[in-house]
Specification:
With 240 residues, this protein is α+β, with helices and mostly antiparallel strands. The chain contains 4 helices and 15 strands. The strands form 5 sheets. Strands 6-5-4-1-8 form a 5-stranded mixed beta sheet, covered by helices on one side. Strand 11 and strand 12 form a beta hairpin. Helix 1 packs across helix 3 (121-139). The chain is globular, with a radius of gyration of 18 Å.
């Protein structure tokens, strides 16, 4: 691999914090659940962060095992992180893995409440605190790194849920960041398919397939953090 062009070194930092809420909470993702509370934890939820800095540019990409990131959640996290003085300023990208079995109760809008249950300020504060803490951790523990990129087509993983003969986006892309000993420290993975391997019948918290994939990659590369980006899921669904 090679560093990004320019004389300034490429620095990266990572963080991974548990995002599984305590107690029972409404699940987000299917309106037919009607805001019913979770009955347990199928697998743990996390917020994973990749921080990148080169010269005057710094960015933190936070991937959360949630259905969505709305404006209120983004602004609250941005404000919390902004209390930490930093030079250069930190640009934030917050994304959700789009799991349909993550916690709800953090959306205030009417349509959000249909698929997420009623707003709970304690749930909102829990998410803000954990996401902000992970961003601060990643962006304040940086090390030199090199970067590589790979992309390929998968087979048998994605279907068009609206039209069986329609377009499928089977591409999986990965950006791999390695330390100076060429050990992976972070993998940024992009794949487009709704995380709906667990249907509306499921009442347990789960990160769905993005969580399973990230866990497998992190087991394969101990110490690395896998940051999942859902891409343009649109009408793309996982093969079950």
């Amino acid at each position: 691999g090679a560093g990004v062009g320019g004389a300034e070194p490429l620095l990266v930092g990572t963080a991974k914090l548990d995002l599984t809420p305590p107690g029972k909470v409404p699940l987000a993702g299917y309106s037919r659940r009607k805001g019913k509370a979770s009955t347990g934890v199928h697998d743990p939820l996390f917020v994973r962060v990749l921080a990148i800095q080169q010269g005057p540019v710094a960015i933190a990409i936070a991937s959360c095992d949630l259905l969505m990131i709305d404006e209120q959640l983004f602004e609250a996290v941005k404000q919390r992180v902004g209390t930490e003085p930093r030079d250069p300023p930190l640009n934030l990208v917050l994304t959700a893995t789009h799991t349909h079995s993550g916690p709800g109760a953090y959306g205030r809008k009417f349509l959000e409440k249909l698929s997420m249950g009623h707003f709970d300020p304690q749930m909102f504060e829990f998410l803000v605190g954990r996401i902000a803490a992970a961003i601060v951790q990643a962006s304040t523990h940086l090390q030199p790194a090199t970067v590589r990129y790979h992309s390929g087509s998968t087979s048998g993983l994605v279907v068009n849920r609206m039209d069986p003969t329609g377009v499928c986006d089977a591409e999986l892309s990965a950006v791999i960041f390695e330390d100076l000993a060429l050990r992976p420290v972070a993998l940024l993975v992009n794949f487009s398919a709704h995380p709906t391997t667990l249907g509306s019948w499921n009442r347990e918290l789960s990160a769905d397939y993005p969580g399973a994939m990230a866990h497998a990659i992190e087991q394969r590369f101990p110490g690395a953090v896998c940051v999942f980006l859902p891409g343009s899921v649109g009408d793309q669904a996982p093969v079950k």
